[in-house]
Amino acid sequence: MTRGDTGPDFIEALARGLDVIRVFRPGRPVMSLTEVAAAAGLARPTARRILLTLQELGYARTEQGGFALTPRVLELGVSYIRSMGLWEVARPHLERLVTQTHESCSIAQLDGSDIVYVARVAVPKIVALSVQIGTRFPALQTSLGKVLLAALSPAEVDRVLAEPSRSGIEPRWQPDAKEREAVLRAVRAKGWAMTDEQLALGIRSVAAPLRDGLGNVIAAVNVNAHAAETSIEKLTEEHLPLLLKTASAISADWALYEAVPHVTAS
């Protein structure tokens, strides 16, 4: 894969290994050596050595004449979530919110022009887009993303959204700069955001910010509903007050968590 300028300490072999892991996407769980090499922009011998190394470490396996990742790859992402402690703090609140709303609830953070889901409690429903930990969507067309973008300055928003999305999703709503700024200005004023089928048909949600003890937005939490089942009125009049209460409780607990010294015994 093409890279920009790298420093003298850049480890190309590690970067290539991560490139290989990233080429496995939804709908492509098993790939041949040739497919992996082409997708990662590597020579076949290099891709083969990387895949065999991943296999020996337990991150990949041979399957149906090709290669597939193993669940152990999840450890790489879960390590990030656990290192933050956010999941442990948020989980009981998310579970309570799901019980109250009977809808799926998630937490996401900004990564370039995308949001990435870092915590989720789901209910079994058929939705247009599958969501799991690590899923990414274009930020601007999601309620979670609007909240996170609204926490940035206009210059930062321009810089972030100039980066191409890595989600592979083509959203329905494509606002110009003037409309985008008006929407984010409204989110800043209200303190919450809504999206109504702007990402994809059938997806409607509200989101609120999660803050640290200094008031900085560290993530966003949402209630996600199917547009055919949940009206905008129900989403904003019934679910939104519960969401805002939950966001406040998570933020308060996170501030307490940050304030407590964390020491690991050796």
Please give a structural write-up.
The protein has 266 residues and is α+β, with helices and mostly antiparallel strands. The chain has 2 domains: 12-69, Winged helix-like DNA-binding domain superfamily/Winged helix DNA-binding domain (Arc Repressor Mutant, subunit A), CATH 1.10.10; 76-259, Beta-Lactamase (2-Layer Sandwich), CATH 3.30.450.40. The protein is 44% helix and 20% strand. The protein contains 9 helices and 9 strands. The strands form 2 sheets. It has a 6-stranded antiparallel sheet. The protein has a 3-stranded antiparallel sheet with strand order 1-3-2. The mean pLDDT is 88. Keywords: DNA-binding. This is IclR family transcriptional regulator C-terminal domain-containing protein. It comes from Nonomuraea guangzhouensis. Pfam families: HTH_IclR, IclR_C. InterPro entries: HTH_MetabolicPath_Reg, Tscrpt_reg_IclR_C, Tscrpt_reg_IclR_N.
Q: How much strand?
A: 15-25%
Question: What is the CATH class designation of the largest domain?
Answer: Alpha Beta
Instruction: Report the end-to-end length measured between terminal Cα atoms.
Output: 40 Å
Count of DSSP H/I helices: 9
Per the CATH scheme, the topology name of the largest domain is Beta-Lactamase
Categorize the overall geometry. globular
Q: How many β strands by DSSP?
A: 9
Strand order of the largest sheet: 6-5-4-9-8-7
The helix/strand series, from N terminus to C terminus, equals HEHHEEHHEEEHHHEEEH
Approximately how much helix is present in the residues? Answer: 40-55%
How many discrete structural domains?
2
Please state the average pLDDT score: 88
Low-confidence stretches: none
**Largest sheet report:** 6 strands, antiparallel
Class by helix and strand content? Answer: alpha+beta
Query: CATH superfamily assignment of the largest domain?
Result: GAF domain
Keywords: DNA-binding
Protein name: IclR family transcriptional regulator C-terminal domain-containing protein
Pfam families: HTH_IclR, IclR_C
InterPro entries: HTH_MetabolicPath_Reg, Tscrpt_reg_IclR_C, Tscrpt_reg_IclR_N
